[in-house]
Fold this sequence. Notes:
Blueprint: H1 4-15, E1 23-28, E2 34-36, E3 50-56, E4 59-64, E5 69-73, E6 79-83, E7 95-101, E8 106-110, E9 117-121, H2 124-130, H3 144-152, H4 158-163, H5 173-182, H6 196-215, E10 256-260, E11 263-267
Parallel strand pairs: 2-9
Antiparallel strand pairs: 1-7, 3-4, 4-5, 5-9, 6-8, 7-8, 10-11
Helix pairs in contact: 1-6, 3-6, 5-6
The protein binds a DNA duplex (16 and 16 nucleotides) through residues 1-3, 58, 73-77, 94, 111-116, 154-156, 160, 163, 165, 172-173, 221-223, 261-264.
Amino acid sequence: xxxxxxxxTVRRALATVLPGRQVRxxxxxxxxxxHAGLRSPRALLQGAQLAELRRHGxxxxxxxxxxxxxHVHLGMTGAWSHLPADDNEKLWPHSHVLWHLDxxxxxxxxxxxxxxxxxxxxxxxxxxxxxxxKLGPDALVITPVQLHAGxxxxxxxxxxxxxxxxxxAGLGNIYTDExxxxxxxxxxxxxxxxxxxxxxxxxxRMRRLLKRAIAKGGSSVRDYVDSMGRxxxxxxxxxVYGRAGQPCSSCGxxxxxxxxxxxxxxxxxxxxxxxxxxxxxxxxxxxxxxxxTG
DNA sequence: CCTTAATCCTGGAAGC
DNA sequence: TGCTTCCAGGATTAAG
Length: 294
């Protein structure tokens, strides 16, 4: 489940080793992992000199000096790894694409669940026209006015709106739950009911949350590791994600869990009070009774 | 147009 | 011990 901090960690790690390297040979073991564009070795950057790595939301792009672009989305279990020349470790299964570089090292895209994928484009403009134009502003640079305008347009639950990559790009299930807890906002708050001062607070907290997570190398729940195989350490600072039934770090109340926007959502009933009345109040799974006082 | 649900996929955990 | 069942979820597509 790489989200913005995990993808940015991968980007930074690859940016220290890839620029300047030449791609000698590309082997495509599972062609279906290339979702759009050409699947030829040339399209996959064979012969190219690598220049730069860019990120928008959870998506990554590897730019060659001649303009060719390789675009990667890690999905849920995807990994983009760099194996040094002296690393003789056997490649793990589900390694779909391998780039053999001029210094003997290898770049590997692997993804057991194949929710991720690879796209090829002749240039950056083609990538932006095909994919990045559909994304909202990156979560690290979106302004309160932009986010507020996006939330105003929808009556969905706030959590569902924050997961919508066309509204703001980069948040996934982990960081939306953590952000909502940090802002003391209920996941079912109608998105359009959040006023601008609250959105300003959200943006401030969101930037701080994501930057702290990046500083810790992201969150390693299940199997995420960065391109060097290193685990992140931000998961030990999670307050709600994966902690259903455990005591709230702030008030000690048992954390609640239910489905919001089709995703498992964890929050504190006491700290994250639903402030706007809805026509039909859904009872949380298990018949948890509503909070009497705050 | 807007929102929700189904779908993809496999490893790991839980249950019997 | 070994089998079956369920669950995790990002993004796309289909349905309501």
